Amino acid sequence: MAQELDQAPEGARVPFSRTPKALREAIAQHAPVLLPDFDKHWKRAIADTYDLRPVPAFMARWWIEYTIARDPELDARLHDLELRAAESTDIAEARALLDEAARIRDKALRTEPGE
Length: 115
Prior knowledge:
- This protein is 65% helix and 0% strand.
- The chain is mainly α.
């Protein structure tokens, strides 16, 4: 059962339905810095095209972004990995760093609302 986001104690993870509207509300409340990009992407990829086929990919991408952004330590870790990979002159090291970043994103995608 979906719950209202504002009914949770501070810092609690509240389950909600995985709909664009619910995700937008969660982003607005817990990761507002993402909201302008979320809205622009929605308008460009979905609203302006009148095509709902991209919605699952859109939701997956923004679910990952939201899940990572609501955890400042994880967000910092991911950005550090990506920065170090970009600056690395060793291809094996860069690949290992990007593989770790990909694992973080994959885990974020598999995170359920409320976790």
